[in-house]
Amino acid sequence: MTQATARAHPNIAFIKYWGNSDDALRLPVNPSISMNLDGLFTETTVTWDETLKQDTLRLNGMDTTGQALERVANHMSRIRKRLNIETFAHIDSANNFPTGTGIASSAAAFAALTVAAFAAADVNLTEKELSTIARIGSGSASRSVPSGFVEWYFAKTHEESYAKSIVPPDYWDLVDVIAIVSEQHKKTGSEAGHPTAKTSDLQIARIMNAYERCENIRLAILNHDFPTFAEIVEEDSNLMHAVMMTSKPPLFYWKPTTLTIMELVREWREEGLSVCYTLDAGPNVHCICERKDAETVRERLSELSGILDIKVAGVGGPAHIINKR
Ligand code: DP6
């Protein structure tokens, strides 16, 4: 039996991934850019075991079967194919943040799983290949493999659709102050959501300008240019939600508190605070701030009603091995 444990952070996208050209391979229709979230992580131990007849999964301390096991076992089968082995594995995975809170747990989960599985088999892959393989488990997981601020390239082939670091975490001290508005499980998660993107007439417009937004946000990051960064991040989030709301069937993720916070964030920025909002496939609001204003934003959010919890995360490093035997 060989075993390895990996840790990976979730990430928050500034330019969003929404819709695939190939759902099975998770080849996205546009490039995306994100930052890893420090302090929040998934820790996954993979133990290859010759005596097993199938993969087993423990999730946050609970033996797990059904859809979650099926998705993980499918991913392990791809990894087995790449390793050219038939051995099954025990997978033990835990998050230090609650699942289903709108903090994308699948990104950290599939990044940690991929990195742990190859390390446990004593096989060293490049970061590029680890990112492509993590991508097939969950698209955004490709972005949790490299460090800091990360771009996931658009490509038509499996080999070239991977994510790479733009700059390391200490390049720009940004903080994500996450207002948790609902802890209910989403009715339509990202996996079911992506295939609906093409049913919106707005998706084509979102995709067309995604390249330019990526270019501009990359520059804004490199120049520490918060005002430009803020306008593009909010525009891109609004565009994705416009696509969601105009898909067939329409997907509305916002709650009244979500909109209240979005409006306040824009007012706070006009007052001079370096803060902007972005939302994933859920009602929680990620308030991206420069460090100097993060505490003020957290305090102001804590005074509002309708917010269940607030999480604060700086820029995180790459998925990495923390233990191996
Ligand atoms: C709205 O990576 O969670 O958070 O590939 O089906 O696992 P699957 O989808 P996922 O989609 C993330 C969508 C998003 C935007 C983003 O993170 O870019």
Please give the radius of gyration in angstroms: 19 Å
SSE string, helices as H and strands as E: EEEEEEEEHEHHEEEHHHHEEHEE
Beta content comes to 15-25%
Could you estimate the helical fraction of the residues in percent? 25-40%
The hetero compounds bound to this protein are: ligand DP6
Bulk shape = globular
Number of strands: 16
Uncertain runs are none
Which structural category do the helix and sheet elements fall into? alpha+beta
Number of helices: 8
Arithmetic mean pLDDT? 96
Sheet with most strands:
6 strands, mixed
- Read across the widest sheet, the strand sequence of neighbours is 8-7-9-6-1-16
For the terminal residues, how far apart are their CA atoms?
Answer: 9 Å
How would you characterize the overall build of this protein?
The protein has helices spanning 66-83, 105-120, 127-137, 190-193, 203-222, 226-245, 256-271, 291-302, and strands at residues 2-8, 11-15, 20-22, 27-28, 32-36, 42-49, 56-59, 62-64, 88-95, 149-152, 163-167, 174-180, 275-278, 285-290, 309-313, 320-324. By secondary structure, the protein is α+β, with helices and mostly antiparallel strands. The chain has a six-stranded mixed beta sheet with strand order 8-7-9-6-1-16. It has a four-stranded antiparallel beta sheet with strand order 2-5-10-11. Strands 13-14-12-15 form a four-stranded antiparallel beta sheet. Helix 1 (66-83) runs parallel beside helix 2 (105-120). The model has no long low-confidence stretch (mean pLDDT 96). It binds ligand DP6.
